[in-house]
Sequence to fold (144 residues):
Amino acid sequence: MKISSYLFVILMAWVIAQGMKYVIAVVRDRNLNNLRQLYVSGNMPSAHSCTTVSLATLVGLHDGFDSAIFALSALFAAIVMYDAVMVRRSVGEQGAAIRQLIHNSSVNKSIRLPRAAKGHTPLEVLAGATLGVVIGVVVFFATT
Fold:
């Protein structure tokens, strides 16, 4: 297996996960103008979880699930998924609350408020991780 397979699985996982976000948003909203879903964080499925788990899966299948590099990639994936649910989600909820407070206050309404980036629900992370396993397995068998 070439080093490019590792980079390829990351790219494929990101493109597929972000593409799925767009499709889900189009179906949900019945509107094709959801192009932001192709690059924003948050929503279903978690692209961060998908990319890190796809890499860990490919590393495990290629180098062994008892290898040091698999342990490192699995730890990396676990940290990313924990962060998406616990830290980024909390920060996003706080950001939305701050935006609402500013909106309800007497502060100048012409101020452009920054986007409140949101994290993920556990289901969004699980969906991204599951998709990542599938993509990792497919890439492994397609490149060996």
Q: What stands out?
A: Helices lie at 3-29, 47-63, 68-104, 122-143. The two ends are 6 Å apart (CA to CA). The chain has a mean pLDDT of 87. The chain has four helices and no strands.
